[in-house]
Specification:
The chain is α/β, with parallel strands linked by helices. The chain has a single domain (about 5-180), classed as Spore Coat Polysaccharide Biosynthesis Protein SpsA, Chain A (Alpha-Beta Complex), CATH 3.90.550. Helices cover about 30% and strands about 20% of the residues. The protein is built from five helices and seven strands; from the N terminus they run E-H-H-E-E-H-E-H-E-E-H-E. A seven-stranded mixed beta sheet has the order 3-2-1-4-6-5-7, with helices on both faces. A hairpin with a 5-residue loop joins strand 5 and strand 6. Helix 1 (about 20-25) packs across helix 2 (about 30-45).
């Protein structure tokens, strides 16, 4: 099996950046500490599987250079760039060079077994999705040869049915597979 191209979307872990919904619920310091711990555990867990090739897609874009040295500094980092989350993901997925999987950095129960399963599904499907318990999705993968132009068009990312909205944008002739439903921590 070829190496799995996994892109982890991540915010630079610090009190003043990111995960505002989580920080509003449990406080800035607890939210930041949770995110920091979960990010490290996610990368550690998935990076230990030699079948997986990880890139971290970071925000703010300055995180390319200003990334904490103790958080897998040697892993390649690419900027998320401007736009909403859909525009950012599409920029990564639209690169037709090879199939790839995107996940968030806030999935506590993620495992390499699930990532490998998702990758295998891309051999027979054009799209693979990992539903989340809140009505969204925590994983999306596109096969190498598939072209989906309007996958993230007209998505209201603040609603609890983003998976349903994305599914609506997928043509009925497109083969879609699914992996386990997991919790993502907003």
């Amino acid at each position: 099996m070829e190496k799995i191209n996994l892109i982890i979307f991540a915010r630079r872990p610090e009190i003043s950046i990111g995960k505002s919904r989580l920080k509003n619920k449990i406080g800035k310091i607890l939210g930041s500490n949770f995110y920091y711990f979960n990010l490290i555990q996610t990368i550690k867990r998935l990076n230990s599987d030699k079948r997986i090739n990880i890139k971290i897609c970071v925000t703010p874009d300055s995180s390319i250079k200003d990334w904490p040295k103790h958080i897998f500094y040697n892993l390649p980092r690419i900027p998320q760039g401007p736009g909403d989350i859909g525009e950012k993901m599409w920029k990564i997925l639209a690169d037709k060079s090879k199939k790839k999987i995107i996940i968030g950095s806030d999935i506590p129960n993620i495992s390499s077994k699930i990532i490998v399963n998702a990758w295998k599904k891309l051999y027979s499907s054009q799209i693979v999705l990992g539903p989340s318990e809140d009505g969204g999705f925590w994983l999306i993968g596109l096969s190498q040869n598939h072209k989906v132009k309007k996958l993230f068009k007209n998505i209201d990312w603040s609603k609890n049915n983003t998976l349903e909205q994305v599914q609506y944008n997928i043509s009925c002739v497109t083969k879609v597979s699914y992996v386990e439903t997991l919790i993502d921590i907003d």
